[in-house]
Amino acid sequence: MDKYQVLAEYFGFHEFRQGQDELIDGILSGRDVMGVMPTGAGKSLCFQLPAVMLPGMTVVVSPLISLMKDQVSALTQCGIRAAYINGSLTEKQISVVMNRARNHEYKIIYVAPERLDAPAFCELCRDIEISMICVDEAHCVSQWGQDFRPSYLKISSFIAGFARRPVVCAFTATATKRVRDDIVRLIGLADPIQVVTGFDRENLYFEVVKPKDKLVALRRYLDLYSGTNGIVYCSSRKAVDELTQTLSEERYSVTAYHAGMPASERKRSQELFIQGEKEIIIATNAFGMGIDKSNVSFVIHYNMPGDIESYYQEAGRAGRDGSAANCVLLYSPNDVRIQKYFIDNPEDNPELTEKEKRELYLLRMDKLNHMINYCTKAPCLRNYILRYFGENPVGRCGNCSACNGSGMSIDITLQAQMIFSCIKRVREREDKEVIADILKGDATDYITYRKYDKIKTFGAMSDTAKSQILLHIDYFLSHMFIGERNGKLYLEEKSKDILYSGKRVRRLAEKQENKTLNKQKPLNVRLFLELKALRREFARKMSLPDFIIFTDATLRDMATAMPDSRGEMLKIAGVNERKYDKYGAAFLKVIIKHRVKDVAKAERP
Ligand code: ADP
Ligand code: MG
Question: 209 - beta bridge partners?
Fold first, then answer.
């Protein structure tokens, strides 16, 4: 079988992505290789595919247990025999795996770096044919990378122990020169073929905002993105816990992840997110390396990370399936203080000399400065990142908040494509209602009579409410992507860019939000928190659970509608006469106090 056949047969893909071809050819010709590609580019395939074709077994060194498990199950799904050995297995399970490996039952075995000096494992590697050693997440070998793992330093002596040296390959998403040089030197790659692919991730929209109140901003984003999956990164465990609690009380579909949680809970949380039972995971940077969840459509940083490498890697977990995704960073000067604290109080590393410590300090400060500049000064966010990684983009990207002007926005390219192609299919002879019905997949008499239920776009937006489809159509009308003549929709020139030239469209959320704001007042967060505190008091006094007094939803309604009388209060869902008589008056008092404050504020010049 040649590499194309393996690609199709085992992986189900029909073409290589940028860089894969060259790296695979290198390995198959017996050369060492180093692949530097951004997260999501498809590095795994570069070693997994040749591993299938090479005669012996491939050993993959990988830093994280979760990563190994996922990759091995993905390989098994593809019909490639693979296994892993790490601390999550019992001794007995390890010996089963080792015996099977001895019987040539695996093409690929994943190991944690600690395994490389276990005598039994070394013996196994001497006894069977090892064709390739692959170091995944190879930046972990470098103290200058962001995830230094001292046990990665064992790799070179492990390789040196072979009588016949296997091919060695290394992969990372960290592209700074210093880290790249370290990888070649510390792993001992022999004159490797190096492939560094472009770092741009076109489908990601970058956004930096400096909100007055991060929680309020976060909620607005989560509402904007509701129904999709995303990650919210925080810089501390405490922030993760607090946010998770607040948001889950407000009925957001969230789960938490940080290294301070018991392993079983962490694992459960990760699974809930990966399987889509929870839409949002709120996490520290402990979450994510090697997570291959393809449908993450947003990554929000609640705090600024310490360097661009970390930021890009974390943000890059969005949109791995290639569809449009949002990367938002909520910046505040306090984030700088937090990161400075981390730099001033580093983890003790006895392997470093004083001079090296000083050097590391300066390096980290320099990295932090770049990160701050990204948040505060970059004229184009994407280009700033690309330049940081050594690329030389020209012009501006036009696809980030620095280029587009700030304001929440969402990508509606897909919706545009569906609506435009539907208009085209019906030869520009139908009105909005009919177009919306076709897209919704509503087989009305007229639609079946016209045989529109046979066209490709019929039901293409079946999971979108018809009212929403109509809103999209109105948006495209008002932005002159389409026009209306005698009530029939037709395509304007501008729509062709989107249908045929791969141009993207975004819609500013603010316009839409302002409309709803007029109808419906926003939640008064401070009031909501006060009402919750009051509820707590009642609950404690009466030894009842909070929600028996009033649910969060009821308090939210109160803090939104801000009723000012008994009658108004009784209109709130969840407040009946009995409850009003028991608690209502006390809650009403708090609300009225807030209304007075609001009025006073509004009247001041
Ligand atoms: P990373 O570079 O971050 O390690 P992965 O190897 O996990 O990325 O790959 C990211 C995604 O891209 C996976 O879902 C993988 O199946 C997919 N992928 C890799 N190569 C190809 C290809 N040639 N065609 C289509 N999808 C691919
Ligand atoms: Mg990977």
Answer: 330
d(CA 53, CA 312): 33
Nearest 5°: CA angle at 557, between 552 and 563?
Answer: 130
- Looking at ligand 1, which atom is closest to the CA of residue 39? 3
Question: What is the spatial distance between Cα 194 and Cα 183, in angstroms, rounded to a whole number?
Answer: 11
Report pLDDT digits (tens) over 485-524: 999 999 999 899 899 888 888 876 643 333 333 334 677 8
CA proximity to 209, closest of 331, 83, 347, 90 = 331
Which residues line ion ligand 2, judged by CB < 5 Å? 43
Query: Rounded to an integer, what distance in angstroms lies between the CA atom of residue 148 and that of residue 205?
Result: 29
Sign of CA dihedral 566, 570, 575, 577: positive
Distances (CA, A) of 71 to 5, 109, 341, 407, 530: 21, 10, 36, 38, 47
The closest residue, in CA terms, to atom 18 on ligand 1 is 42
Name which of 238, 141, 221 is nearest 180 in CA terms: 141
Query: How is 439-488 classified by DSSP, letter by letter?
Result: HHT---HHHHHTTGGGSTTTTTTTTS-HHHHHHHHHHHHHTTSEEEETTE
Amino acid residing at 339? Q
Amino acid symbol at 429: R
Closest among 248, 291, 236, 100 to 547, alpha carbons compared: 248
Judge whether 66 and 290 are in contact, CB under 8 Å: yes
Verify whether ligand 1 is closer than 6 Å to residue 41 (CB atom). yes
Residue 37 CA to ligand 1 center (angstroms) comes to 11
* Predicted TM-score (pTM) of this structure: 0.60
Nearest to 59 by CA among 120, 106, 11: 106
Give CA–CA dist 95/89, Å, rounded: 10
Q: Which residues contact 345 (CB under 8 A, 6 or more apart)?
A: none
DSSP string, 82-140: EEEESTTS-HHHHHHHHHHHHTT--SEEEE-GGGGG-HHHHHHHHHS-EEEEEETTGGG
The minimum-distance atom of ligand 1 relative to the CA of 43 is: 2
**Cα 552 from chain centroid (whole Å):** 28
Q: Looking at residue 281, what DSSP letter applies?
A: E
- Integer Cα distance of 343 and 347 in angstroms: 9
**Of 434, 432, 521, nearest to 476 (Cα)?**
432
Per-residue pLDDT tens over the stretch 434-458: 999 999 999 999 999 999 999 999 9
494 lines ligand 1 (CB under 6 A): no
